[in-house]
Amino acid sequence: MTVPFREATIDLDAIADNVRHFRRLTGVEVIAVVKANAYGHGAAASAVAALAGGATRLGVAEIPEALELRRQGVHAPIMAWLHAPGERFEQAAAENIELGISSFDQLEAASVVASVDRPVAVHLKFETGLSRNGIAPADWGRVLAEAARLERIGRLRVVGLFSHLSNTSLDDDRAALSKFEEGVAAAASSGIRPEIRHIAATAAAIEHAEMRLDAVRVGVGIYGLSPFDDRSSAQLGLRPAMTLRSAVAAVRRVPAGTGVSYGYDHRTERDTTLVLVPLGYADGVPRQASGKLPVSIGGRRFTNVGRIAMDQFVVDVGDTPVSIGDEVVLFGDPTLGLPSAADWADAAGTINYEIVTRIGARVPRRAS
Ligand SMILES: Cc1ncc(COP(=O)(O)O)c(C=O)c1O
């Protein structure tokens, strides 16, 4: 079998199983978060897998992501919550996209494109301490009164009330939840009866039963990754969906003292074999991990040497026999003995979210 030059294999069954896991664990609706090309896993295929696993709604950041899913034939409810300044919501309304609303102006813009026979579905987002978007508490009264009026005249349907947590500490998240509950109570006094309230993403969905409410918006967890530093995917009952592979592009036997890659940050200490892996920072291999990046070749773990370049990096395999075309697994499921996205994150000083999300467009995704 020829080994792919570069490839991210996506285990769609793992995505479906991970969603099933969250359905069982929480007992509430799972909104599968498939923004940013499903954290690098491929938006449409991941969305379909998540729906097969029991998700009933999809979450994306921006409207173009939602429209692309529609273009790819995904008909499930989709919500989008981060809008361009001055967004008019025309296409979103035409494609039946549910809108996360963070301001009075957004509410008005949504109502303009609604009609009585086709009200726009919205989720009102309360700012509860993350200091990003969301309706500021000082505006809750005005926005809720207007949303209730628009609902009464049939231009709007308030499907959801939601917020997002900072995951700073249990106390901070509880404070955010209680602020959110004030918003829910204010909405009720204005006559708004949403179908769902949602505040928890992966971490709170796992950790805090009281924050699951009516739905959880799960991103990193459905891709089988842990949102915690101190617990692995397997400890959470999750299976990583992405395996990043490549084929050795060159093999070179070199003497001691040979400089490797730009700037000669590394010189070989003895006669050794250097192998070239054809992925670089253009493909999402973090340059900050230079000299620390773990990979698996022929079932053995090695660490890269020298600087990671745009298209390639070098691994010192010592005297291990390696040939051009041999498979390199860059990361995957650590229960199979492979480096994990979390190992890469440690090497790069970042989080596993960023590792998978930044795998570049030049790396083909293949469903497995
Ligand atoms: C509003 C919102 N909800 C849910 C998520 C999913 O978060 P996680 O990947 O931690 O589950 C995100 C991701 O950043 C988000 O921005």
From TrEMBL:
Listed InterPro entries: Ala_racemase, Ala_racemase/Decarboxylase_C, Ala_racemase_C, Ala_racemase_N, Ala_racemase_pyridoxalP-BS, PLP-binding_barrel
Cofactors that this protein relies on: pyridoxal 5'-phosphate
GO cellular component assignments: cytosol
Residues where substrate binds: R132, M310
Alphabetical list of SUPFAM superfamilies matching this protein: Alanine racemase C-terminal domain-like, PLP-binding barrel
Residues recorded with modification N6-(pyridoxal phosphate)lysine: K35
Protein keywords: Isomerase, Pyridoxal phosphate
GO biological process: one example: peptidoglycan biosynthetic process
Pathway membership: Amino-acid biosynthesis; D-alanine biosynthesis; D-alanine from L-alanine: step 1/1
Protein's UniProt keywords contain Metal-binding: no
EC number of the protein: 5.1.1.1
Reactions catalysed, as given in the entry: L-alanine = D-alanine
UniProt keyword ATP-binding, yes or no: no
GO molecular function, one term: pyridoxal phosphate binding
Residue ranges of domain Alanine racemase C-terminal in the record: 241-368
Active site: K35 (proton acceptor), Y262 (proton acceptor)
UniProt similarity note: Belongs to the alanine racemase family.
NCBIfam families: alr
Function, as annotated: Catalyzes the interconversion of L-alanine and D-alanine. May also act on other amino acids.
Name under which the protein is recorded: Alanine racemase
Lineage of producing organism: Bacteria, Bacillati, Actinomycetota, Actinomycetes, Micrococcales
